[in-house]
């Protein structure tokens, strides 16, 4: 795939199905202007969660090249959580910017913007990939165990505990991997 111009990147507190509904309604309305427009969908499977990708295309007759207006990516921010979802719009040519502006406006008009925090109904350690001892380390951390206590429970060094927490915090921010005093103050 050639590199397209990113025209939009926003987080929404809406499930994938609702976002797809808005996109589908927009593409349906677009067919009033461009009757040959279709939405082609692909799912890119990753360990961190599946990425929904939609390509808005105008199909041409046999022997002529189809026109690709660009694509959409919907990426879950956390595992095991329906929200928030990151929506990115990519335009394949400046001539098609109007279409992407219309879709952007439709998304902003109909969906709830997110602050990027996970829902409180899901345990924070369940929102990260299940690699090694990451989830168990994070669960102990949220339960108020100290670094030395976690190290003993997981049979690793204390420095490994703090190094891994630091790396996880850089990736998932302090809402998922709080500083220890913040985790205790939430109780």
Write the layout of secondary structure elements.
Blueprint: E1 5-12, H1 16-30, E2 37-44, E3 51-58, E4 67-76, E5 85-91, H2 97-110, H3 134-142, H4 147-154, H5 158-176, H6 180-185
Antiparallel strand pairs: 1-5, 2-3, 3-4, 4-5
Helix pairs in contact: 1-2, 4-5
Describe this structure in words.
The protein is α+β, with helices and mostly antiparallel strands and 187 residues long. It folds into two domains: 5-110, TATA-Binding Protein, CATH 3.30.310; 124-185, Arc Repressor Mutant, subunit A (Orthogonal Bundle), CATH 1.10.10. It is built from six helices and five strands. The protein has helices at residues 16-30, 97-110, 134-142, 147-154, 158-176, 180-185; strands at residues 5-12, 37-44, 51-58, 67-76, 85-91. Strands 1-5-4-3-2 form a five-stranded antiparallel beta sheet, with helices on one face. Strand 2 (37-44) and strand 3 form a beta hairpin. The longest helix has 19 residues, at 158-176. The protein is elongated, with a radius of gyration of 21 Å. The mean pLDDT is 90.
Helical amount: 25-40%
Number of domains: 2
Distance between the termini: 48 Å
Tell me what portion of residues adopts beta-strand conformation. Answer: 15-25%
- Round the Cα radius of gyration to an integer and report it: 21 Å
> Which CATH first-tier class of the largest domain would you pick?
Alpha Beta
Helices and strands, in order, run as: EHEEEEHHHHH
Mean pLDDT: 90
Backbone shape = elongated
CATH T-level topology of the largest domain? TATA-Binding Protein
The CATH architecture assignment of the largest domain turns out to be 2-Layer Sandwich
| Count of separate DSSP helical elements | 6
- Overall strand count: 5
Are there runs of 5+ residues with pLDDT below 50, and where? none
Structural category: alpha+beta
Strand order of the largest sheet: 1-5-4-3-2
Instruction: Give a quick account of the main beta sheet: strands, pairing sense, barrel closure.
Output: 5 strands, antiparallel
């Amino acid at each position: 795939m050639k590199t397209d111009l990113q025209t939009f990147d926003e987080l929404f507190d809406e499930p994938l199905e609702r976002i797809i509904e808005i996109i589908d309604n927009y593409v349906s309305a677009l067919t009033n202007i461009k009757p040959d427009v279709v939405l082609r969908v692909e799912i890119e499977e990753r360990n961190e969660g599946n990425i929904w990708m939609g390509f808005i295309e105008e199909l041409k007759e046999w022997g002529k090249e189809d026109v690709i207006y660009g694509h959409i990516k919907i990426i879950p921010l956390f595992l095991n959580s329906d929200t928030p979802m990151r929506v990115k719009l990519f335009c394949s040519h400046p001539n098609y910017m109007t279409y992407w502006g219309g879709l952007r406006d439709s998304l902003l008009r109909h969906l709830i913007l997110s602050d990027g925090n996970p829902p409180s109904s899901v345990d924070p350690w369940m929102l990260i990939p299940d690699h090694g001892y990451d989830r168990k380390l994070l669960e102990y951390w949220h339960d108020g165990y100290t670094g030395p206590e976690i190290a003993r429970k997981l049979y690793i060094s204390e420095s490994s505990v703090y190094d891994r927490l630091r790396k996880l915090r850089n990736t998932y921010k302090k809402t998922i991997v709080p500083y220890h005093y913040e985790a205790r103050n939430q109780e």
